[in-house]
Amino acid sequence: MSEKKPGILNPITIGLAVIVAGGVFGYLYLKGVFSDATSPLASAKVVPDEALMTGMISTDPKAWAQLQQFGTPEAQSAINKGLNDFNKQMTAESKIDYAKDIYPWLGSVMFAVLPSDPNIPGKQNLLMVVGIKDKISAWNFSNKIKSQIKGQETDYNGVKILETTGSSGKTYSAVLNDHLVFAPERKAVEQAIDTFKGQPSFAKKENAVSLLSKSVDIQNTLAQIYIPEYGNVIQQLIASNPNSPPLPPQSLAQLKLVKSLVMGLGVDDSGLRMKAIGKVDPSLIKVEYKPTPGKVVAQFPLETIALISGQGISRGWAAVVAESEKNTELQKQLDQYRQQIRTSYNLDLDKDIFGWMDGEFALAAISSDQGLLAQFGFGGALVLKTSDRQTAEATLAKIDAIAQTNSITVAERNVQGKTVKEWKLPSQEILLGYGWLDNESVFVAVGSPLIDVMVTNSNSLDGSESFKAIAGSLQKPNIGYFYIDMDKTMSLVNRNLAAAQNSPLPPDANAILNSIRGIGLTATQPDASTSQVEMLLALKPKTK
User: Fold this and answer.
1) 8 Å CB contact between 237 and 83
2) Calculated CA dihedral for residues 487, 489, 493, 499, nearest 10 degrees
3) Angle, alpha carbons 475-456-474 (nearest 5°)
C-alpha cells in the first residue's frame, strides 16, 4: 500500500502564507504603496470646512530643478545664498538634513487659510497638511525630532498633539493616519483633528471635489490654489482686516457671482507661468466677450517700455450705464460727470467722449531722452481705433478749441505725409500731438520726439524679440495684453534713482529684478461661465 503524501495546502502552509502575505502587505502599506494621501482631495479631508482656501505645493524636485535654467550669476547666487541660510538654520536648530530626513517620506504639502481670530485682527491662521508617503521613514524622522527638540505631548479627542518651541515660536503638530498636520496655533490642529474624526471637511464643500480634481494646464507645476467660494473668501478677508473699508452691497453681490477659482504656477522654457480659471455666474459678465484682433500692438515702436491693450471702450461704458440703472448712487455720479463735462467743455460724455471708441485701443509708456521728456526718460502714447472717424474728429476739434483758451497754441505739422496737430506751450515746447495713422486709428503722444516715433515707426513692437518672448506664448485669441519690458524698466529705475541721489536698490533685489526679461498678462473667456487669466514672468536664460 503506497504512502499518502501530505497535501500541498495544509494548514501550516496556509498559515505561513498568510503571515508572509500579511507582512508584505503591512510593509507595503507602511511604505505608502496603497495610499492616496498625496492627492489634493485626500489632504482636504482633514482640512476644516470653514477654511477660506487651500493650496498644494509641489514636492517634485524635477519641477523645481527647471528653475535652474534661468537667471544671471548674481541672481543664482542670491537664491542659493537664501537656500543655504535656510538649511543652516534648520541644521542649527534640529540637525535636520532635508534630503535624508524629510524627502523620503514627504508625499505632498497642502496649506489651508482658516478664518483669523477676531481677537487678533490681521493675523493669518494657517494650517499645514503634509501627506505621508512612507510611514517607516516618517516614524524614524519623528523619533529623531523627539530626541533633539524638547516638546510636550497632550491629548485631544484621542490624538496626541506635540507642542515644540523654536526660534520662530511655538508649533503644534499631530499625525492623522496618512497625514501630518501642524500650525502655529493649537486651535487649528484641534480643528483638523475634529475634521478627521468626522466633522465637515473642505472636501465636502459644494463643488470641492471637481475643483480639487481640476489641474491647470501648465508644465512642471510648482503650486496650485483652490478657492471654492471666491466671493465669501474676499468678504471674510476684508472683514478680518480692520484697515479695509467695508464693501458696498452692490460690489459684494457681484463678488458672490464668482463661484470658484483655481490657480496654478509652473515653469517652462519661457519662465514662470501662472494660469487662473474662474467659474462665474453668466450674469456677472456685463460686456459681451469679443477677442481683440491684436493689430494695435504693431502701431507702437520698439522703444515701448510697457503697454496695456484691449477693445471696445464704448461697450464697457455702455455696460456701466446699464448697471447705473439698478444702482442709484452710481447713476448720481454718472449724471454729475455728464453735467460737469457739458457745462465746462460743451461735450457729451456718452457721444463725444466714449461713443466713438468702439475699436481696439492701447496705452503705452515709451522711452525717450529728448525734449520735454528728457527729465523723465519716457513719455506716453495712446492709440484708439474707431469706425466713426467723423465724430472722433469733431470731438478732437472741440478739445483743440478748449486748449487754445488756456494759452496753448495748436498748429499743424507734416510728418512723412501725415498731418499732425501739436499743442505748443508758451515756451514753444511741444506738450502733445495727435494724428491719424490710418483711416481708423488716431494716436495721441506726449512730446515732439514721440510724435515722430509714432508716425514713422520703422521697427514695430510686435516684431521685436522682447515682445515675442514675453507675450508671444500667451493664449490666443484674447482680450488684449498687459506687457512690461523689464530691461527698459530697470534702466529707467536706475537712472531716476541716480538722478534723485537716492540709494540704489539692494544688490540681491537688483540681481533678481535684472534676471527678469519681462511680464506678460492676458485673459480669455472660453464660455459664458468661465474666465481664464494667464501671466508669464519671462526669465532670462542662465548665463555663466
Assistant:
1) no
2) 90
3) 5
pLDDT digits (tens, 9 = 90+) for 309-349: 999 999 999 989 988 888 888 899 999 999 999 999 999 99
What is this structure's pTM?
A: 0.84
Neighbours of 135 (CB within 10 A): 19
Cell, residue 97: 538634513
Residues ≥6 apart with Cβ < 8 Å to 344: none
Residue 523 DSSP symbol: E
Going by C-beta distance under 8 Å and a sequence separation of 6 or more, which residues neighbour residue 60? 220
* Amino acid, single-letter form, for residue 227: I
The three cell numbers locating residue 325: 440703472
The CA distance from 17 to 106, in Å, is 32
Please tell me whether the peptide bond between 118 and the residue prior to it is cis, using omega within 30 degrees of 0: no
> For cell 521728456, what's the residue?
373
Chain center to CA of 427: 46
pLDDT digits (tens, 9 = 90+) for 423-478: 999 988 899 999 999 999 999 999 889 999 999 988 899 989 999 999 999 999 99
- Residue 123, all three cell numbers: 493675523
Q: What is the pLDDT of residue 121?
A: 63
Q: Exposed/middle/buried for 15, CB within 10 Å: 0-12, 13-18, 19+? A: exposed
Query: Terminus-to-terminus CA distance in the chain, angstroms?
Result: 88
User: What nine digits make up the cell of 417?
Assistant: 505725409
Q: What SS3 state is found at 30?
A: helix
User: Is cis: bond before 477, omega within 30 of 0?
Assistant: yes
Owner of C-alpha cell 528728457:
374
In DSSP notation, 361-379 reads: EEEEEEE--SGGGTTTSEE
DSSP 228: S
Round to whole Å and give the CA distance between 189 and 202.
Answer: 15
Distance between CA atoms of 490 and 381, rounded to whole angstroms?
20
- SS3 call for 17: helix
φ, ψ at 311 (rounded to 5°): -155, 145
| DSSP letter for each residue of 231-293 | HHHHHHHHHT-TTSPPPPHHHHHHHTTEEEEEEEEEEETTEEEEEEEEEE-GGG--S------
The radius of gyration of the chain from alpha carbons, rounded to an integer in Å, stands at: 31
Decide if pLDDT at 12 tops 60.
Answer: no
Which of 183, 174, 193 lies closest to 45 in space, CA to CA? 193
User: DSSP letter at 410?
Assistant: E
Q: What is the 3 state secondary structure string of 328-365?
A: HHHHHHHHHHHHHHHHHHCCCHHHHHHHCCCCEEEEEE
Q: Which SS3 state, helix, strand or coil, does residue 412 take? A: strand
